[in-house]
Model the fold of this input.
Amino acid sequence: AQSVTQPDIHITVSEGASLELRCNYSYGATPYLFWYVQSPGQGLQLLLKYFSGDTLVQGIKGFEAEFKRSQSSFNLRKPSVHWSDAAEYFCAVGNFMDTGRRALTFGSGTRLQVQP
Amino acid sequence: DGGITQSPKYLFRKEGQNVTLSCEQNLNHDAMYWYRQDPGQGLRLIYYSQIVNDFQKGDIAEGYSVSREKKESFPLTVTSAQKNPTAFYLCASSTGTSGSNEQFFGPGTRLTVL
Done:
């Protein structure tokens, strides 16, 4: 079965500082990986996704993520955080060739707080 | 504008009552999903539908029911059998269910049991 772990429940960074949110997945084959962002009381918006090819993917709002197969990780990064980035971030994994599952599996989320 | 709408935004229910949450999409997507979100637990899959008149149980289907009579609509009923229904419910859709398909989310419905 596939699973996703986001080790950090809550992270606080200062505005202008760099950010890295961790995501580890468990899946036998090459997964499809996603990062979503959720503002309070809202739905989820896709930041970026990885299917194959270049392991460094660029997304919206200045975010990027790097797929590292050897570490089963797909960490999200941003060089300089803005106050508007305060939200909850979810990592998700897909690819259901051998599981029969037909929906994404989400991590438990990381809440980002940005200090002025 | 294409998108997913959920209604109502807030819903209050007395214990023992069934309630139905609405989800409509005009993206012409075949697949639709219902997730439940609780603090610290991320999103958990309740039901999904790959095509009209077909749906499958997800990880936490007990106490919930769905229908998919139209491509655009995927309503979720929270029955009295659901022992702890207070949560934030999110509906999503995608073009398919291959795993590579991006899911688009609605704004959510917050259900509170009084």
In short: Chain B is about 0% helix and 50% strand. The two ends of chain B are 36 Å apart (CA to CA).
